[in-house]
Write a structure and sequence with these properties.
This protein has 142 residues and is an all-alpha fold. It has one domain. The chain has five helices and no strands. Keywords: Membrane, Transmembrane, Transmembrane helix.
Length: 142
């Protein structure tokens, strides 16, 4: 009985770092979703009168991409908050969500680079480093 309690205590101690990093990622994704939502609202409020067709096409693409990123960041935030609650209870979570988040963040950083916004690369790379660290920490448990 005592040995079983020690194993649970060790497991909880090992899950402390991934738990807090997951909470941090969830908060960052929530903020990203909120700021992207504000950007989407601003894009949809822009007037399209007197704009050249090429600029109108670029505006339409920006609206679509911003809407997709807003929805995806919100989904990741919800899933990360769910993982945080599981980790808080001592339940080991699968690493697949963190792999998906890593791929999404790489695509987000690539989108920032291609659109010429180099300042938008740093926070996704920090999220990527957090996700990799969580994957490595969860990999040590099994």
């Amino acid at each position: 009985m005592e040995n079983q309690l020690d194993e649970k205590a060790v497991l909880r101690a090992q899950l402390t770092n991934p738990r807090w990093m997951t909470l941090t990622l969830a908060i960052i994704c929530t903020l990203f979703a909120l700021f992207t939502l504000l950007g989407v609202l601003v894009l949809f409020r822009l007037s399209s009168e007197g704009i050249k067709p090429e600029a109108l096409h670029a505006l339409l693409i920006a609206k679509i991409l911003a809407s997709i990123f807003c929805i995806l960041y919100a989904i990741f935030a919800l899933l990360l908050f769910n993982n945080f609650s599981k980790l808080r209870k001592g339940i080991v979570v699968p690493k697949m969500l963190y792999f998906a988040l890593s791929v999404f963040v790489i695509l987000s950083a690539a989108n920032s680079i291609f659109s010429g916004q180099l300042g938008g690369v740093f926070l996704p790379l920090i999220i990527l480093l957090f996700a990799i660290k969580i994957i490595l920490d969860l990999g040590k448990l099994k």
